[in-house]
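agent> Task received from the user: take the single chain below, predict its 3D structure, and emit structure tokens. No templates, no multimer pairing.
agent> Plan: (1) validate residues, (2) run structure prediction, (3) serialize to tokens, (4) report one or two observations.
agent> Step 1 OK, no nonstandard residues flagged.
tool_call: predict_structure(input=
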Amino acid sequence: MALRRLNCQNSKRPIAAHAVSPGIAYHWAMLRIGEARLALWKEIWRLAWPIAGTNLLLRGAVIVDTAMVGRLGAAPLAGLGIAQIPLFLSMAVMRGMGVGGQILVAYHTGAQEPERRLKVARAVVVISSVVAVLVAVILWLISPLLCRLMGANEAMTVHALKYLNIYYIVFIFSGLFYVFSSIFQGAGDSRTPLYVTLGVNACHVFISYVTIFGKLGFFEQGVAGAAWSLGVSEMLGTVVLATIAARRGLWQPGIRKFSLGAIRAVMRLGGPTVGERLIVN
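)
tool_result: status=success, residues=281
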């Protein structure tokens, strides 16, 4: 009787919450981990594909310029090709500055520090503007030497310098276009630069067509038209990105709340990237 009473009491005890099969617990944990990984991969893809698209489009219109200039003859086409080397070198520097700013903007965005993020954005825009002017002046001085080192003849050099001399005038806008794109990407918005870049490329192709071939009342400028189309389209893109960034509180014009420490941080992070880009190019 005592044994029967004990069995009855045991049968009435509730099952403990932790008394779950180890196999079920393991599969449940793996399911939760799988869901977390899937959410992480979705977030990475959401940020990554617009950045990849923006990088592809940033110089995609140059391919169209090459096709258009190719119709003008061998010398203009060769001159445009030679001019791309200093162009890539100059943009390598600005890409490095953009990477430095992007890292710091992303850090302060994740830390929910909008004031510090604003200081970093101002710092990277200011220092990038100064660097862009210096790079343009240096390359303008050495471009004839670079053309000769690349084996260009006189006709090729004339066309290359015609392109480069215009490009250096508006280079600051090309550099800042990439820098503002990096600020948006660091803040977690990679689609706005993509959409603006699409508009810039459309504008670039249209201006190239009417200036290279002399359409719609414009006189034929040849290689010079390709340079003007690049500068004007990226200048418009820079103005659009700067305006959107100011409205969203990612950047503000002026030198108030300006931080020398932020400049040093941008240079410390962007400097090695500049060196790496120059070596690769």
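agent> Step 4: summary for the user.
Residues 1-18 have pLDDT under 50 and may be disordered.
agent> Done.
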